[in-house]
Amino acid sequence: MSQANMVPVVNNGDGDNNENNNNVNNNNGGADNTNAGNHSGDQELGSGNTSSGNHGEGLENNQAPPPKKKRYNRHSQLQIQELESFFRECPHPDDNQRNALGVQLGLDPVQIKFWFQNKRTQSKNQQERHDNSELRTANNQLKFENQRLKEAIRQASCPKCGGKTAIGEMCFEEHHLRILNARMTEEIKQLSATAETIEKLRGKPVMSHPGMSPPTFEFGMGSNGRDVYGNVGNHSRETTGPADNKPIIMELAVGAMEELLVMAQVAEPLWMGGVDGTSLALNLAEYTRTFRKGLGPRLNGFRTEASRETGIVAMCPIGIVEMLMDENLWSTMFLGIVGRAKNHEQICADAAGNFNGNLQIMSAEYQVLSPLVSTRDSYFVRYSKQQGEGLWTVVDVSIDHLLPNLHPKCRRRPSGCLIQEIHSGYSKVTWVEHVEVDDSAGSYSIFKHLICTGQAFAANRWVAALARQCERISSMLATNFQSVDSGDHITLTNHGKMSMLKIAERVGRSFFNGLTSSMGSTFSGAGGEDIRVMAMKSVDDLGKPPGIILCAATSFWVPVPPNTVFDYLRDETNRAQWDVLCEGEMIQKIAEVINGRDNRNCASLLRKVNTCQTKMMIIQETSTDPTASFVLYAPVDMKSMEIALHGGGDPDFVALLPVGFAILPDGTGQPGGNEGGSLLTVSFQRLVVSGPSGQLSISSVANFENLVRRTVLRIKALFPCQTA
């Protein structure tokens, strides 16, 4: 483009534009007019932006005689070259530089000033045109690439069956039949090619094709369950089927992610007020209309549970994603909901290790904390993706339809969470829980209302549990612990408080592990159907005494709200009224460390008032959130506890067997009205035979059952009712 060397040009965005207008209007065709319009190509720019230009245009429009034409003087080539050379070095000369340049070139400083203004404007316009041209080119390339990818997806076919790979264009049943047919065809070819070998092996049992065998859950019973440090035990199943369907699984995960993003962000009419007054419930008719090409029709006889909840948690998004993608951390984070979890196969993993685009096949056992309620087993793919700066999504979707001969009782439609960073270590989490369950064979008794209304596994339970665990982790990372030291009793250092929190955390983990084990099956010979008893043998287990340990659990209902029950059971002054192990003696609190915003979330150290008659203390962990509360405790050796608290020993080696209560609402409460009753599950662990070579007797089991039954009767007597 031609170089700018004509003046005046005004209002061009530079800092000295206001001065331009005055100079143009006040000069009589002098220096301000001599530099207007000269370019390196001798092209004259119009001066329509100037006052004089506008005035002249107006007179012409009114057919009035034009004023005397002003005379414009062009700069010489030498002047232009010098000005351009100086412009490349300094596009914004000051007054002294303009004066010196004017003397050198024989120009007025005002001419110099206007020339530089015009040149800056011209350069800016040229750069904008260049940028626009590049953006148009890039946009056209992206459009072409997008169209190419759409066409490739539209024409893609399954390498196994030759059918379409678009999940939304076929139902689950059709897709299942295609995969099954392809596998059978492949198996026939293999059998035909090896006919002679099969003839030689005639008479020997022939194993079925591995691709046709459904995965199985193998939960270890009769061992010590999960280790208290996060080991998920013997939860495993073979996954030969999905390994052959990775492209389909990846497409399924991407579609589930897209659906989750809509489900997590769209409000009415897709979501309505829930039963509990907090979580949102899904409008199934609107869901079907919105996702016409979704993940297939709903299964006959299955009941739908769908809810959404949003909350603030004290953890950054990447920290939450890391815990969700690690099966051990995930099951530990949601101890009251996830019984067991296993990561079967990593399909995709981010090379940088930041979980962006990670895709893995998992299975899990979801539980209501009661031996009266069957667990839900689910087999699914989990996919994590960063959607933007500080914004992540993690989605689950079942892949049971890819596994022949598998008939799941729980199918996860796109479920998961949208995690958004809000400020300094805090995240906003929107959780969507959408499942289909077949509970036709279930017998829930007192839990029926909680289960059938979808509150047992609703989104608000997941968000509340996540927020509570994040609080606990934050308190463990704190340098100063909030505590309550009782009068003339012990005073703990920060090290002692940390040790106390670690031991209390072990109490919680061991409690949930024992409760999960006792929910598996009734101990042979145990009397009564209301108490589940499980025997475990402890051999060299860290933090557990060696020998045979009995775990027992049972559930019952009381007609008072969960908060009332929780506050009563956690108060050490009431303990003698219900704890049969206290033998009627008063209990006192000697130390307490708070690990949450609610002061009731804490670890406490208790002992009998008359310490001369016992060498035992009680370590107690109490925890509560809007959906569940827990009072967990364990007798510990006084000497071992004192050593651990005063820095002389590892708190992980303090032997303990926990006892405790899980307190859930019965689901009948109404917001702002009747709070409903409480569902209590009590679990005991007790060493009944010392040493690894001891034998368990029926009388030991009967005595243990009697201990549990007496505790239940005492608590029911404190809250009299017509039991459900």
From TrEMBL:
Cellular compartment(s): Nucleus
PROSITE patterns: HOMEOBOX_2, START
One MF term in the entry's GO annotations: DNA binding
GO cellular component: nucleus
Claim: Transcription is one of the keywords in the record: yes
Homeobox domain boundaries: 66-126
Annotation: DNA-binding region: 68-127
Primary subcellular site in the record, as a coarse category: nucleus
Pfam family, one: START
Keywords: Coiled coil, DNA-binding, Homeobox, Nucleus, Transcription, Transcription regulation
Residue segments, region Disordered: 1-74
Residue stretches of biased makeup (Low complexity): 9-38
Family statement: Belongs to the HD-ZIP homeobox family. Class IV subfamily.
Protein name (Swiss-Prot/TrEMBL): START domain
Organism of origin: Arabidopsis thaliana x Arabidopsis arenosa
